[in-house]
Every structure is written in C-alpha cells, then in structure tokens.
Design a protein that fits this description.
The structure holds two protein chains of two kinds.
Chain A: H1 2-14, H2 19-49, H3 53-87, H4 91-94, H5 101-137, H6 148-175, H7 179-196, H8 202-205, H9 212-215, H10 224-248
Helix pairs in contact in A: 1-5, 2-3, 2-5, 3-5, 3-6, 3-7, 5-6, 5-10, 6-7, 6-10
Chain B: E1 5-16, E2 19-25, E3 28-30, E4 34-38, H1 45-52, E5 60-65, E6 68-69, H2 75-78, E7 82-85, H3 97-108, H4 113-121, H5 137-149, E8 155-159, H6 167-184, E9 187-191, H7 195-201, E10 204-209, E11 212-218, H8 219-223, E12 228-233, H9 236-245, E13 249-252, E14 258-261, H10 267-277, E15 282-286, H11 292-301, H12 303-306
Parallel strand pairs in B: 4-9, 4-10, 7-8, 8-9
Antiparallel strand pairs in B: 1-2, 1-3, 1-5, 5-6, 10-11, 12-14, 12-15, 13-14
Helix pairs in contact in B: 3-4, 4-5
Classes of the chains: A mainly alpha, B alpha/beta.
C-alpha cells in the first residue's frame, strides 16, 4: 500500500503542464459554453416551449458529455498518460525502481481517475454557473428551479459508469506503444454507441463500455443502475487483471 | 554466489526466438569497483543490463545483485540500492529538472534534501527549475545521472553514461564515478562504446562478442596479452623465413621491419633467441603498448589469437 501511495503521488506530479490536465478543465467547459451561448440567444423561446427548461438545459449538456465527450476524453486521458511513459522510454526507469510493479500500474489508473473526477467537478460547477447566467439573462427563467439532484446524480453515475471504458482504454494504451491503437478502439466504441443510441437498445447500451455513461442519464431507464454497477465492478476487475498481467510483461 | 561480488551472473542465457542474444554469461563484478562492459553494437550489452535489472527474464541461468538472486517477479525488492541509467535518459519533458528528481524521490521514498545534493553533484542547480524540454542532450544525461544517484545507491548500472556529454562533462563524470567508487564504495557497472573512457575509468572490464564473454578481468591483466612485436634485423628476408618456420605469424613491413604476432609477452625473448641462434643481427625489438581500443579490436576480431 505504501508503494501505491508513493507511486500515486509521483503520478499526480507528472500531470503538471500536460494536455490531459488542461483538457480536464477545457473539455467540459467547451460543452457548457456552447450550451450557454445557445441559451443566451434562445432562452425565452425555450422557456415558452418547455415546462421545466432548466431540466432540458442540464439534460442536453449531459447528453453531449456522456455520448461523445466523456468516452473520448477518458480514452484520450488513458492514451496521454501511457504516452508519458512510452515517449520518453520511461519504463526502463520506472520498472527498475524498488517499487512493486502492480502499484506503478495501479497508480496510473488512479491518476486517470483523478483527472476524470476533476473534469466531472468542472462540469458540475460550470453547468450550475452557466444556468445562473441564463436565469439572470432571461426574466422567464427567474422562477424556474434548478435541478441540483439531477445534475449531481448525472455527474456521479456517468463518472462511475466510465470506469470500465477507462480501464479497457488504459490497458490498451499501456500495452501498445502506439498512440493510435487506443484512439482507434475509442473511436470505434463511440461510433458503435452513436449508432446504437437512437434504436433504444438500452440493455445493449448498458453493457458496452463506451455506451454506458450515456445509459446512466436516460430518464426512467431501468438500466441506469446496471450500467453504473457493471461500470464500477468491470472497471475494478479489469484494472486488477491488467495490473497483474502488465507487471509480468518483459520490457524490451 | 560470492558475497564479494556486487553483480554476478551464472550461465546467463537469453534467446529471442532461435537467436541467442546472450549465451552462458558468467559476469563477476567485484564490489566497490568500476567495471567497464564493452562490446560492439549488437553484442548483447543492453540485453545483459536488462537481464540484470529484471526487465527481461533469462532463458536460463541466474543473476545475483549484492549476493541476492534476482527473479523477474520480485526483482523490485532486490533493486533497492541500485541506481540505473539505461540507454537514453528517460525523463518527463513537461516537468522541470527538479520535478523529475521529485518524481523519483517520491517513488524511492528518500529525503527531499537528496534532490539538492544530486542537482549540485551534476552541476544542474542553476537550471533545475527549467522544463526538461529546453535541456540540451548533455543536460538531460546529467539529470539522468543525478536521478540514478538518488537514494545513495550501492550499485550504479549505467548504459552509455557519457552520451551527449561535452569533454568537460565527461571529465567531471569520470571524477565523480571514481570518487563514488573509491570514497563511498559504490560499484559502478558501465557499458560504453567510448573505449578511451573505459580505459581511463575502469579497473575491471568484460568484453562481449556475439553474446559471449570473451574477456573478463582486470584491465591491466588484458595488457599482459601483448600481441605485437616489431623487430629490425640485418637480414629481414632470412629472419622472416626463420620466424615463420618457428611458428610465429610474421609479416614484413614497408619500412623494412618485421611484425610478429605473439600469444604472450614472454615470447619476445624466444623470438630474439631464435634470431640470434640463426646468426641474424637484431638491431631493435619494439613492443608498442596497445591502447584499449587496439586490444578490444584484436579480441573482438581475432579472439583465437588472443587466447592462443
């Protein structure tokens, strides 16, 4: 456990000045700013049309976030974190340290998880902040209640359901030196998700790693919990298996 | 297992497919010494280093570090007290020099004060807060060495440590490694293609050729294998015949002298005796002291002569 904490602390330091860290803040902001821009212009129109426009506001942000941005960002984080070691041939340094190799790999996961958590926090805060600005800009929204519960549940469940896809992507990225392998798998997974989504195949969506985050925000879906639980358990099991197998690999 | 050895391998063999990269290697690196590991490109030096550090698993044979066997699965436990620099210095370009050392420090769980000491040791204090992206190759190499020295290792395993260093940096490194070995008892195992560097630093050397150790021992011991003798005589043609008839590989030089290849230094006396007995006047017997480079090339290119 000591090794793990030391390795995690080193991993967090390695994140300084990285694209992965910048994207953790920029990626959620892009969606929220886009949505804010649209609602600043068409806010009154939406308020007339919808019974609870604030719920729609949150739902659109989370649809964009969970269908495309989160799966892609999680995959990109995995590739970028692994690339930090592959690019500088840093494995020859890391794997010759008196630290349990499983802890070194597990620490990579923890750094990625920290970035995903950060991006979710940024999304939560910026969604709330932007909704406040929309409300200030449009008198019709003044009395509309902000759905804190929905926002928090969506943030938490989508983050948890991302665990499996992140673990799979992390394993692939650590295993293969080429940046493209991980990204190709991610793009394929996201495309499958986009193709399946309109067909309402919710059970399938709740089992495919790249589709699971989107399943968790589907209102009234009976598979939200399944996607979350499967995401978390699958993510942990995949991580354990990957760390075990990676620690036995030779470094040539 | 010999406890006076910092690094020991026994019948160490590693194959990749049908090709043997290292065959039956029996390295013996005395504790507290500077050991130069030489060999032409592709001889198996880096494979050997990776086997020693548990990055690769041997096909057969054993590796011992400070008397304890290294097994790939638990190699990390035996690597405490071992500083490494394998091939190019692997650094994080997005971090500063100090932060790179801090990453290593956190992993090694050593006091923060060691970072300042290591930076000072490698003369990097002034540049410590610049990102490594802006470092020259020589500075990266020095930072890699500073990192290898964190944790006050008892054994330093360095693969081509002088790569990218300017002459001043090479001189400083030489001084530092000598100091670490003599004053702190650190064992330095270094592979290098710069034979002059090994010549000036190492007390012991191992020469690898096609995965096999063709020489191991003290550097001064290697010099005893004096190979060439240049002689000037009054009858060169007659001397050439006599020496060839006596079994010495001899050839005439353009300047009229003769070059004789010997298996061992004491044979010089035998050459002189045979010539005198044949009635040939000997003006000069000259045996130039070969550089390590010349000895290395002789060993690598003609190992059969070297050990005849």
């Amino acid at each position: 456990m000591r090794d793990f904490f030391h390795a995690s602390s080193a991993e967090l330091l390695k994140l300084r000045r990285t694209l992965a860290l910048r994207l953790a803040i920029v990626a959620p902001l892009i969606i929220v700013l886009l949505q804010l821009g649209i609602y600043m212009v068409r806010g009154d129109e939406v308020a007339e049309r919808e019974a609870n426009p604030m719920l729609g506001y949150v739902q659109i942000i989370f649809t964009l976030w969970t269908v495309v941005f989160l799966p892609f960002y999680a995959s990109l984080v995995a590739s970028l974190l692994a690339d930090l070691e592959h690019r500088g041939q840093n494995w020859s340094f890391l794997l010759t340290l008196p630290v349990d190799r499983r802890c070194l790999y597990a620490a990579k996961w923890s750094a990625g998880a920290a970035l995903l958590l950060l991006s979710s926090v940024v999304l939560w805060l910026s969604t709330e902040g932007s909704a406040f600005l929309v409300r200030q800009a449009h008198p019709a929204w003044h009395n509309v209640a902000f759905p804190f519960g929905v926002l928090t549940t969506h943030t938490l469940l989508s983050l948890l359901a991302t665990s499996l896809l992140f673990s799979v992507q992390m394993w692939i990225s650590l295993r293969f030196r080429s940046f493209m392998v991980g990204l190709s798998v991610a793009i394929t997974g996201i495309l499958v998700n986009i193709i399946l989504l309109p067909h309402g195949l919710m059970l399938a969506d709740s089992l495919i790693p790249w589709a699971m985050p989107a399943t968790t925000i589907a209102p009234h879906s009976p598979y939200r919990l399944l996607a979350t639980v499967w995401g978390v358990l699958g993510g942990i099991l995949t991580m354990i298996a990957a760390c075990q197998l990676m620690s036995r690999r030779e470094y040539r | 297992m010999n406890s006076s050895l910092a690094i020991e391998t026994r019948s160490l063999t590693r194959s990749f497919g049908s090709k043997s990269a290292v065959r039956g290697l029996n390295l013996q690196v005395p504790a507290g010494s500077i050991y130069g590991f030489l060999g032409p490109n592709g001889a198996g030096k880096t494979t050997t280093i990776r086997l020693i550090l548990g990055l690769l698993r041997p096909s057969s044979g054993y590796v011992f570090l400070a008397g304890r066997e290294i097994k790939a699965a638990t190699a990390y436990q035996e690597l405490r007290g071992v500083g490494t620099l394998v091939e190019t210095p692997s650094l994080y370009a997005n971090l500063t020099g100090r932060e790179n050392l801090e990453v290593a420090r956190r992993l090694l769980d050593v006091p923060v004060s060691q970072i300042g000491t290591a930076l000072n040791l490698m003369d990097l204090t002034a540049d410590a807060d610049r990102t490594v992206r802006s470092y020259s190759m020589g500075m990266r190499q020095r930072l890699g060495l500073a990192r290898a020295c964190l944790g006050e290792p008892r054994i330093l395993i360095l693969d081509e440590p002088t790569n990218g260093l300017d002459p001043e940096g090479v001189r400083d490194l030489r001084k530092l490694l000598r100091q670490l070995a003599s004053e702190h008892g650190v064992t330095v195992f270094l592979s290098s293609h710069l034979l002059s560097e090994i010549d000036q630093m190492a007390e012991y050397i191992g020469i690898l050729r096609q995965g096999e150790l063709i020489y191991q021992g003290e550097l001064r011991g290697l010099r005893k294998y004096q190979r060439e003798l240049y002689i000037r005589v009054d009858l060169p043609a007659r001397a050439l015949e006599v020496l060839k008839a006596s079994g010495w590989a001899t050839e005439a030089q353009d300047d009229g002298s003769l070059r004789v290849l010997l298996a061992a230094e004491p044979e010089s006396a035998g050459v002189a005796r045979v010539l005198v007995q044949a009635g040939i006047g000997v003006y000069e017997l000259h045996s130039p002291k070969p550089s390590l480079e010349e000895l290395f090339l002789q060993l690598v290119e003609h190992p059969e002569v070297a050990y005849a």
